[in-house]
């Protein structure tokens, strides 16, 4: 028993508090940003480059990029978690393949193609970019929700039913609680994917760091492209780090 | 509901049948059984004989195809299944404790569903932990995976008892533990049941366990047909047929001796020791026989006198020295 207690005590300290290993990612991101700033500082920027690489533009693009990511992920949560639950129910087994196929399609269809199609229907702008992002990011959350709920030990469900919990109570108090780690892992994947795919928003005039990348390429200004690319990667790493923290803090205790 | 009384109530099964669609024979075929209030009845039979299905129909985890179930005179099939299950204790082999909840939350689950106030629930949790020999202050706030298998089983029993239901259904609750823990849990459970007098249906495939725990045993065969339904002593003394006899095994008489206490047999002579091996009054006759054989004696000393080999034979209905014509005095 003492060995078990020790093991639990250990996992509690590493699982619940922010330790040194949690600091590696933010420190690295900061170092990369400082290096990028120093490198750009050594360059002689011409007027075209100066128009892109200044504080106001970079801040605006950062805000646009993060807005797109957050809005898309919120929509993904609203759409994918209920669909994942629906797909996990045995009484829905006939429609589960349909739900999964739609989710797979969203990821299989090239995002750029989907954005072009959406532009024909909705014109350009933020909302059009969202369509592409949501379609792309639904699958990991949907799949992980479904698998997370399905992998709950059937003995727990039987015990819960045997004690008189209703189906809704079992879903809320047992199945979803135990699926939290899987759902969060899916959400983390979805967020990182979204940050990357949000660069395509530049093609539908939705802003974001994609604009720096695309402009740099079009105007043959390599520093602009590099700044856009590195900043996008930094956001992706930062969000992944936040996701990791959330997983550690939100996973049910006792597991 | 039927649990105004927390002591056991009578359960009646009337022509209970479960026929799964697409299967040639019913899993449970026309079972009629009376389970007296406050008794522990063991359903024993091979895997797949329908004993678990029969039990699960009582709390409607399995809906009967036809037939009637009365608990304390009330027709179970007319009640809301979820409400019904909150008033029937339920313990299973895999225990099924929720890993994300503390022991206290696990035990307090049914009282919580029934809307008990928080202080009453926590008092009840502590009471139950003590009842199953777990120190409340040490276990209340732990999580299931921090407990050993035997401790989890005890919590499982405590959880089934939480709302003090008059009826408990137990599906091999000690099946997944090692033999030593199992024996220990069985002994504790026998004591507990003496105190609580619930009506308990206990499913097992282990006949030894059935003898040890049951007030009555229902030996079931394919389709949950009742091969014999009687007290352990009566089944051992007079198995209804070959099937029941095969379940008992070769040592029926020894098993019967194990059911009787030294104090139940009249001892002869003076209790003076005179060098005879000693047995205590609450030892079983089987233990007394063991001591006699170990000492090469045909008698041993009890607190009230001398127990002879002949008295042992008489207790199980045979006369010492008689080779043939084995008479069964019981039934």
From TrEMBL, chain B:
Transmembrane portions of the chain:
none
EC class, as a word, reads: translocase
GO MF terms, alphabetically ordered: ABC-type quaternary ammonium compound transporting activity; ATP binding; ATP hydrolysis activity
**Record SMART domains:** AAA
Stated EC number for the protein is 7.6.2.9
Q: Which residues form the ABC transporter domain?
A: 11-248
Q: Name the UniProt key words of this record, in alphabetical order.
A: ATP-binding, Nucleotide-binding, Transport
Tell me the InterPro entries matching this sequence.
AAA+_ATPase, ABC_transporter-like_ATP-bd, ABC_transporter-like_CS, P-loop_NTPase
This protein is called ABC-type quaternary amine transporter
State the organism of origin.
Answer: Nonomuraea longispora
């Amino acid at each position: 028993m003492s060995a078990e207690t020790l093991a639990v005590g250990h996992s509690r300290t590493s699982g619940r508090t922010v330790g040194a290993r949690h600091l590696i990612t933010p420190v690295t991101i900061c170092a990369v940003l400082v290096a990028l700033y120093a490198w750009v500082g050594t360059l002689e920027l011409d007027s075209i480059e100066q128009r892109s690489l200044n504080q106001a533009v970079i801040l605006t693009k950062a805000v646009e990029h993060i807005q797109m990511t957050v809005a898309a992920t919120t929509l993904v949560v609203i759409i994918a978690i209920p669909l994942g639950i629906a797909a996990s129910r045995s009484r829905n087994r006939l429609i589960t393949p349909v739900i999964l196929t739609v989710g797979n399609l969203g990821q299989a269809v090239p995002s750029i193609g989907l954005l072009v199609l959406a532009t024909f229907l909705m014109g350009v702008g933020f909302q059009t970019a969202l369509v592409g992002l949501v379609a792309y990011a639904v699958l990991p959350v949907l799949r992980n929700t479904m698998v997370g709920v399905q992998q709950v030990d059937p003995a727990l469900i039987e015990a819960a039913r045997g004690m008189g919990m209703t189906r809704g109570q079992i879903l809320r108090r047992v199945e979803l609680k135990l699926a939290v780690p899987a759902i969060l892992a899916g959400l983390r994947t979805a967020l990182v994917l979204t940050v990357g795919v949000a660069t395509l928003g530049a093609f539908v005039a939705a802003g974001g760091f994609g604009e720096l990348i695309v402009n740099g390429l079009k105007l043959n200004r390599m520093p602009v492209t590099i700044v856009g690319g590195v900043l996008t990667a930094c956001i992706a790493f930062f969000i992944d780090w936040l996701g990791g923290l959330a997983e550690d803090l939100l996973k049910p205790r006792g597991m | 509901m039927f649990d105004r009384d927390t002591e056991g109530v009578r359960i009646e099964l009337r022509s209970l049948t479960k026929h799964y669609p697409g299967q040639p024979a019913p899993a449970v075929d026309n079972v009629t059984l009376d389970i007296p209030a406050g008794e522990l009845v063991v359903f024993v039979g091979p895997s797949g004989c329908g004993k678990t299905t029969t039990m699960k129909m009582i709390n409607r985890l399995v809906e009967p195809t036809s037939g009637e179930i009365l608990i304390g005179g009330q027709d179970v099939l007319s009640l809301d299944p979820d409400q019904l299950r909150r008033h029937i204790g339920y313990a299973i082999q895999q225990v099924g404790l929720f890993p994300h909840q503390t022991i206290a939350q696990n035990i307090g689950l049914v009282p919580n569903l029934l809307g008990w106030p928080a202080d009453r629930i926590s008092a009840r949790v502590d009471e139950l932990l003590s009842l199953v020999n777990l120190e409340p202050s040490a276990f209340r706030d732990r999580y299931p995976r921090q407990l050993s298998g035997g401790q989890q089983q005890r919590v499982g029993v405590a959880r089934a008892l939480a709302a003090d239901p008059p009826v408990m259904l137990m599906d091999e609750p000690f099946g997944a533990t090692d033999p030593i823990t199992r024996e220990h849990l069985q002994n504790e459970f026998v004591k507990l049941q003496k105190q609580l007098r619930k009506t308990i249906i206990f499913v097992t495939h282990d006949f030894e366990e059935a003898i040890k725990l049951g007030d009555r045993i229902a030996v079931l065969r394919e389709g949950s047909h009742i091969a014999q339904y009687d007290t352990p002593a009566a089944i051992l003394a007079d198995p209804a047929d070959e099937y029941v006899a095969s379940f008992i095994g070769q040592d029926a008489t020894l098993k019967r001796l194990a059911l009787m206490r030294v104090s139940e047999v009249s001892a002869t002579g003076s209790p003076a020791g005179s060098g005879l091996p000693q047995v205590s009054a609450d030892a079983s006759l089987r233990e007394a026989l063991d001591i006699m054989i170990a000492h090469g004696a045909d008698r041993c000393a009890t607190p009230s006198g001398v127990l002879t080999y002949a008295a042992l034979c008489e207790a199980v209905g045979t006369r010492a020295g008689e080779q043939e014509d084995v008479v069964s005095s019981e039934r």
